[in-house]
Specification:
2 domains; five-stranded mixed β-sheet; 12 helices
């Protein structure tokens, strides 16, 4: 008998993000070279062999070696043979073949990369959880999985097999989860926004409860009981770890679930409202408008 997997907040958020494949590329470069990239949303890369420099505004130059991986979130960056080489736009190099490019003289370094964009407007919040760059060094336990997934992505993207695009979507989602996991496990808790709550033994069970029952109108006392804390202490710790008050977080998650159902299902607004604990369409509309800035009906039409 197949058991239903236990849900968790990060998986829930990823489920409504709508990640889709945008491109997958291979770059070989040698000699003296530098290329400027402008990611659509998120770009994943791994150095297959050799080494190169990663350069970003307001960041110290980072030397990448074989096996190192990095994730860039919506921020222009430069890959180069040295920190002081004048770059050209990568788009010029990929003009003839958007999948593969060779630049410079020789094959000193090879990089494999994948990009994603998002179908869901709510995915912006997910991107905002990441810093502009996450570097995963080859010695990290995360790097081998990251590199393998990008290698599989490259093979699927260039294949003509049935289901290749679906495989790319799934591989990109797995890559993104690996990047988020690495970030959650290694970053300073203060820099993690609500993800910091997943590392707090008192707050994590509350987050799981909220995501498990989005239809429940959560009260502060109920959540404090789950955390085994007093109401005042719980409220203060939750706000510090998550960046929002507990009741506000629960409401916002409920409205994100509502938005996903409005966008992806044919259920009536009344049915969605009732299933999420609202006694009237009017009360649901007020809550939805406060979070999303528009009525449920208008949100569905525009989506």
């Amino acid at each position: 008998m197949i058991q239903k997997a236990v849900t968790d907040p990060l998986s829930d958020v990823l489920a409504v993000a709508g990640l889709r494949a945008a491109c997958s590329v291979r770059l070989q470069a040698g000699g003296i070279w530098a290329l400027r990239f402008k990611p659509i949303e998120l770009k994943f890369n791994v150095v297959r062999h050799g080494e190169c420099w990663l350069l970003m505004q307001d960041k110290a130059p980072c030397l990448l070696r074989a096996g190192d991986c990095f994730v860039i979130a919506r921020t222009p960056f430069i890959l180069a043979s040295g920190p002081d080489v004048e770059p050209i736009d990568a788009a010029e190099v990929f003009t003839d073949n958007v999948m593969t490019a060779t630049f410079g003289v020789g094959n000193d370094v090879e990089l494999l990369g994948g990009s994603v964009s998002f179908d869901s407007p709510g995915a912006v919040e997910l991107i905002d959880l990441l810093p502009s760059v996450v570097v995963i060094k080859a010695k990290s336990t995360s790097a081998s999985s990251f590199a393998w997934l990008l290698d599989e992505l490259d093979r699927e993207w260039q294949s003509s097999q049935v289901g290749a695009f679906a495989m790319c979507n799934d591989l990109l989602r797995m890559i993104f989860v690996h990047a988020l996991r690495h970030h959650v496990l290694t970053a300073d808790v203060a820099d993690l926004n609500w993800l910091g709550g997943l590392r707090d033994s008192s707050i994590a069970p509350v987050l799981r409860a909220i995501h498990r029952q989005p239809e429940k109108i959560w009260r502060l006392g109920e959540m404090a009981d789950i955390a085994c804390m007093s109401r005042s202490s719980f409220a203060a710790v939750f706000k510090t770890r998550v960046g929002q008050a507990p009741v506000e977080y629960a409401t916002r998650w409920r409205m994100r679930v509502a938005a996903t159902r409005l966008r992806n299902s044919a259920e009536s607004i009344s049915k969605i409202a009732a299933s999420l604990g609202y006694l009237s369409d009017a009360a649901f509309g007020v809550a939805f408008r406060r979070i999303h800035g528009k009525s449920p009906g208008r949100y569905r039409r525009e989506a």
